[in-house]
Amino acid sequence: MNRYLCLFGVAALVLVAADDSDEAKKDIERFQGAWVFESVEIEGQPAPAGALKESKLTIDGKKFTMKEGDEISHGTFTIDASKKPKTIDGTFTDGPEKGKTILGIYELEGDTYKACFNVAGKDRKERPTKFESKKGSGFVVEVLKRVKK
Fold first, then answer.
1. I need a surface site. Which of 4, 16, 22, 114 has the fewest CB within 10 A?
2. Model's pTM, two decimal places?
3. How many domains does the chain have?
4. Is the CB of residue 98 less than 8 Å from the CB of residue 91?
């Protein structure tokens, strides 16, 4: 379960824009800072509240850090804000998922970030098209809230 949190937590960050639109640049700016998990649904099942308590995602420039208890992973992201829904790809640079890329979609409204990632389904090559996570899909839906300074 913790490995899955790390996977999608990373996805929660947007770091490098796949398109150079003003909207992509604005989204990248809006992702900067620290985020905590409000909820996570893994293949249709909610993650236990306690599993989210010590998880935190931090975005700095074009890099992310996902801390879950004592485990820390790093990576980079790309987004495409011109797509509907907007897309995000996260690549891990270390940790148990080093070298792996996850495909997802995202929404960013105010201090709430919502994402759906393919963390285990069909060799991770299928991008979600909706914010839903059904049993056997390999998809994870997560909602994060910005940490207030």
1. 22
2. 0.84
3. 1
4. no
